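[job 0412] stage=fold_complex status=start
inputs:
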Amino acid sequence: MIPFYLFGAVAVTASLLVIGQRNPIYSVLLLITSFGALAGLYVLLDAPFVAAIQIIVYAGAIMVLFLFVVMLLNAPHEDTEEDLARGIAAQSSAKGTLAPDTRWAPAPGVRVFGASLATLFVLEVVWALTRRGGESGEFARAPVTSVGAIGRSLFTDYGFAFEVTSVLILVAMVGAVVLARRERPSAAKAEPGVGRPHGRHPERA
Amino acid sequence: MTPLLVAQLVLTLFVFVMLLNSAAAMVYMERKVAALLQQRVGPYLVGPKGLLQPIADVVKLMFKEELRPAAADRFLFALAPIISATAAIAAFAVVPFGAETTFFGLLDEPLRLQVADVNVAMLVLFAIASMSVYGIVLAGWSSNSKYSLLGGLRSSAQMISYELSYGLALASVLLLANSLSLADVVDRQAGSWFVVLPRWHVFLQPVGFVVFMIAGIAETNRAPFDFPEAEQELVAGYHTEYSSMSFAMFFLAEYINMVTVSAVATDLFLGGWHGPFLPASLGWIWFLIKVGAILFFYVWMRWTLPRFRYDQLMTFGWKVLLPVAVVNLIVTAAGVLYFGL
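[job 0412] stage=fold_complex status=done
writing structure:
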């Protein structure tokens, strides 16, 4: 029981700290810590395969890409609303006006959306916690230790879902490539021929 | 405490100390072989034939000043080498290196020479390898230096790219062995075909072996794939700003990773501790010989081949190595299914 509480505490604490960081790199690292603790919980549940996959896929592959993006975007600090307010005040006083600069304030629609999401989450948590003692107490003791069993059910019973998921990921990848490779006239002008067949000049094309 | 538990603890400690020593031995071998290939003498002053040179190196590193760039991220700068060294040492825990033994009758039941007998050992290896990327990336980022950052980014791109081929080569072996446990894979390679040819997987999986070795060299950032630290372009890459023992930890991690990859290659493809002439209880001698041969190959490669260009590395990884590994996996799967290899 002690390892369970240990891993559980680490997972919950790290997850909570993720949203409290100013530096996104630390958020990424805390998320990795949280995933690691989850993997520990899987080991305790006698599912070493799931634990290893959790580390390989989530903590390894996906979070490395997150880290990559954070590092390349070069966004070391996220400004809080107080910082922004201070900046706006300094800006408007420098301009000699008292009119607040609304450039940085989130649109009211965004706030309503965030508030409704938060309410939904709280309701969900309350619902989940009040359901105790029902069917959640006794879960099916499926043999999750066997890699063979997991593979068999993945490719037979859940074959359709598996294939559809892979197509979904492929679509997302193609979408990302399309979005990233959109034509930028200024860049094309600066370097004629880059990314175009036969080096045709964009204006004459 | 039961005798089995004591034996386990002693074994764990033994592996830990031996890994550290193997890094020292590798440094000596690297310098001596490099000298041999370049017609130099190599280290010869410290101890007989320069044998104490690694100790002198470590003492020197320990007494160097520990420097940290003023603009570095303090916590991550300290954490990065720890991640690297921990991942390197942890990976060896699932690698078996000898047959089951009772230690001359000291134990009631035999104990396998392996720190942790996990039934998903191959996946654990893979998971730890994917964790070791963080040490290098964080070192690059937290140093707040352009050379370090470029080295870190390059290395993460390289390791992610070659991890795929590495994993597919592992997968083709696990198809043959029908198990994720390294010990099972080794046990399956006992005996021989037609009396003379040992039943090693390298003869069933020559393509897999080559892919595994190439990807392994890239994973450990060794020449000709040592882009993270390409000294002509990046000073020293991700560890440019590190000095003293924190540098030594990266150094240690690199050599221990080499030892681990060699040990895994021995287990997967070269029959592990199986070999002629010696009884099973002395199989670890065969294991050491095989690992040593692969390590020598590593050093030989480094001092023979020039470094690739970075775009060549990426092109090779994605357009040559990965397709070859995928085709090899499909052919292996078909072979297992239809011919029961």
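[job 0412] summary: The mean pLDDT of chain B is 81.
[job 0412] exit 0
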